[in-house]
Design goal:
With 419 residues, this protein is of the alpha+beta class. It folds into 3 domains: 142 residues, DNA methylase specificity domains (Adenine-n6-DNA-methyltransferase TaqI, Chain A, domain 2, Alpha-Beta Complex), CATH 3.90.220.20; 121 residues, Methane Monooxygenase Hydroxylase, Chain G, domain 1 (Up-down Bundle), CATH 1.20.58; 147 residues, Alpha-Beta Complex (Adenine-n6-DNA-methyltransferase TaqI, Chain A, domain 2), CATH 3.90.220.20. It is 38% helix and 21% strand. The longest helix is centred in the middle third of the chain and has 44 residues. The radius of gyration is 27 Å and the shape is elongated.
């Protein structure tokens, strides 16, 4: 097996096996005595509210301040870090006590993409989602490590540079969030007309999906795709998890065929963090069949389709459902509830005018969001590459910091965004 972590390292760096640099901490304890911690992509933090809870709280691995903790599962690749907390983690995590290595250098080294790939390669499993790397294998990973003074110099450099990059990423993420809020305001302004309030059901036709029996689903991509709730995202259709229906049986279900331009709403968990699950099918999405728990909403002559989409994605629409859904573990809305939503009606000509202006503003916002998100991706890529280069000795951090290379990289990323 080729050692990724030693390929580009300077020859004067010393060669070790990971087990010579860390000792596995095997202490066990209860989360009553040692507060539960979460092992995340951002490092080790007090247990998140969203973390899966277990009844086995008395059988956890103890973590001491300064320990390195890494999740052994491949589906959590990249989750780990040096802990600033004393506490406990689940048994799927590996707890390491740094021995002959600077903890801050270890934090960057073991979180580097190069090490994560090496860690994964030493794992075992039937399929990727069940792939696990145990300490017995991990301890044999070979690493080239500089002397302690150089380790600290590299750690200082990476602490400083990654903090600078993280600050830029945070600012850009705030901009993306503000642009999202701006779009919400545009929508609310467009649908707030001071017109007479009317039920949405007077202006639309709703078709609920058919309960296609799952036993008859096909996996043949030449068959007709079934549009399920899982395929409906805010603003778009996703086909990364698709089942099909035999084309030979389309005659039985022809009324549930969807065409490009049809608007659909996911009725189970209809709103997620990124918005309300309403989308319009494109030419690439059609034809498809409408499955249960998804509905097609078609405007009548009294309602412009783009104005209807603004209504369905508005804060007003969401606020209408919130009291209905309060206390419900799995939110679900019905066609009757959708039809009962009331809005301020104006004539169709005014609807078109308002929707056209809103869409124009949406396109402008989307362009800025897209370029900002690309800039964030580029910053993350540069951050990962910089960490790997530093901890494997591909760059001399003393000269790199003085050369202004980081500044030029960051300036180039910003220029790409502004172009």
């Amino acid at each position: 097996m080729t050692d990724i972590m030693t390929l580009a390292s300077p020859p004067d760096w010393s060669l070790y096996r990971l087990g010579q640099l860390f000792r596995e901490r095997k202490e066990k304890g209860s989360d009553k005595d040692f507060p539960p911690l979460s092992v995340t992509m951002g490092g080790i933090v007090p247990q998140l509210e969203t973390a899966a809870k277990t009844d086995d709280g008395d059988n956890r691995k103890i973590v001491r301040v300064g320990d390195y903790v890494i999740n052994s599962r491949s589906d959590r690749k990249g989750s780990g870090g040096v802990s600033d907390y004393e506490g406990s983690v689940s048994l799927i995590s590996i707890v390491l006590e740094p021995r002959n290595i600077d903890p801050r250098f270890a934090h960057h080294l073991l979180r580097s993409p190069a090490f994560q790939e090496e860690f994964y390669r030493w794992g075992h499993g039937i399929v990727a989602d069940l792939w696990t790397t145990r300490y017995g294998d991990m301890k044999n990973i070979r690493l080239r490590i500089p002397d302690l003074a150089t380790q600290r110099q590299i750690a200082d450099f990476l602490d400083r540079e990654t903090a600078r990059i993280d600050l830029l990423i945070e600012k850009k993420q705030r901009l993306v969030a503000l642009l999202g809020e701006k779009w919400e305001s545009v929508v609310e302004s467009a649908i707030s007309t001071d017109g007479k309030r009317t039920k949405l059901g007077h202006h639309i036709d709703i078709l609920s999906g058919y309960a296609f029996p799952s036993s008859d689903f096909s996996i043949d991509p030449d068959d007709m795709p079934l549009l399920r709730g899982a395929n409906v995202s805010p603003g778009s259709i996703r086909w990364d998890d698709t089942v099909y229906w035999s084309r030979e049986r389309l005659g039985e279900v022809s009324r549930f065929l969807l065409d490009a331009g049809d608007v659909v709403l996911g009725m189970d968990r209809p709103w997620i963090s990124s918005g309300i699950r309403v989308a319009e099918l494109t030419e690439k999405d059609a034809p498809a069949l409408l499955l249960q728990r998804v509905c097609r909403i078609a405007p009548r002559k009294t309602l412009d389709k783009q104005f209807m989409k603004l209504l369905l994605t508005s804060r007003q629409f969401l606020a209408y459902f919130e009291p209905i859904m309060t206390g419900v573990s799995v939110p679900h809305i019905s066609p009757d509830q959708v039809s009962s939503f009331r809005f301020e009606y104006v004539d169709r000509e005014e609807q078109v005018k308002r929707a056209t202006a809103a869409v124009k503003e949406r396109d402008r916002i989307t362009r800025v969001q897209s370029s900002t998100e690309k800039s964030i991706d580029r910053l993350k890529e540069y951050r990962s590459a910089l960490i790997t280069a530093a901890v494997t000795g591909q760059i001399d951090v003393a000269t790199y910091a003085k050369s202004g290379t980081s500044d030029r990289h960051l300036d180039a990323i910003q220029e790409e965004m502004d172009a």
